[in-house]
Design goal:
The chain has about 250 residues and is mainly alpha-helical. Helix content is about 55%, strand content about 5%. α3 packs antiparallel against α4 and α3 runs parallel beside α5. The longest helix has 28 residues. The chain is globular. The two termini are about 20 Å apart.
Length: about 250
């Protein structure tokens, strides 16, 4: 809804839609993509490392990219498990290599704790065991990588992670469509307010949050009508979003 229409500094780029100078992949600069990742986080790992070495990434709002998000996993019966395995394993590997020790320990304890709980669930036990086993198996390689990366570090995590907004995913890759919710409209205006500072957006956030948190049950058609009225002069994309609200 146009909340990303300003060019800005960002943590990194998804390799589904990135322009990176070829020389960045040479060992004298950032280096190659880690071949042990296979799926997921290989771009985050590369961008994290590039940030540590002092390189910057910028968004390009005028670019248009068509990407079949998670297309190869929607049709496979084991698609979710495959995705979960590589995302969780490679998150741990990315942190082990790149993060400062206090951040590594904090997130590692959380993620390892999740997998240990999953071991008690008969449906999740096989995938959790596989994640923990392969994480332990890869630590020798990760340690050697970490030593080199941390020695070459020019920027601390604080200067990198400030670009991570921690936003919820606006897209449901299982249903293959956006998540049409009041909370996502509210998040949109929160971001617009943070980068533009328009007081009108602050008023919209307050209104949306009141509707979202009300104890009274309001029919969705009534909610749509209220929002169309309140946001009457907002761009058409906002009203299209309101028309599709599901909750």
């Amino acid at each position: 809804l146009d909340q990303y229409n300003l060019e800005e500094n960002i943590f990194g780029v998804s390799f589904t839609s990135a322009f990176i100078k070829r020389k960045a992949f040479s060992e004298e600069v950032v280096g190659k993509i880690d071949p042990t990742f296979f799926l997921f986080y290989e771009d985050i790992d590369f961008c994290y490392r590039a940030n540590l070495y002092g390189f910057k990434f910028r968004s390009c709002p005028t670019a248009i990219c068509y990407h079949r998000y998670a297309f190869s996993f929607r049709s496979a019966e084991t698609g979710y498990q495959t995705r979960y395995y590589y995302e969780k394993l490679n998150l741990l590997k990315t942190l082990y290599k790149n993060a400062e020790m206090h951040n590594l320990e904090r997130v590692k304890n959380i993620e390892i704790g999740i997998q240990k709980k999953n071991l008690k669930d008969k449906n999740l036990k096989p995938i959790a065991r596989k994640i923990l086993k392969n994480y332990r198996w890869s630590r020798k390689y990760l340690k050697s990588q970490r030593v080199n990366i941390q020695m070459a570090r020019k920027v601390f995590d604080e200067g990198i992670l400030k670009y991570c907004w921690g936003e919820a995913n606006f897209f449901d890759f299982v249903e293959n469509m956006p998540v049409y919710s009041i909370s996502n409209i509210s998040r949109t205006y929160r971001r617009l307010y943070s980068i533009i500072g328009n007081k009108r957006y602050e008023e919209f956030i307050f209104y949306l949050e009141n509707i979202r948190n009300t104890k009274f049950r309001i029919e969705i058609d009534k909610v749509r009508s209220m929002l169309h009225s309140k946001l009457e002069y907002e761009r058409p994309s906002v009203h299209n979003f309101i028309d599709n609200l599901k909750e």
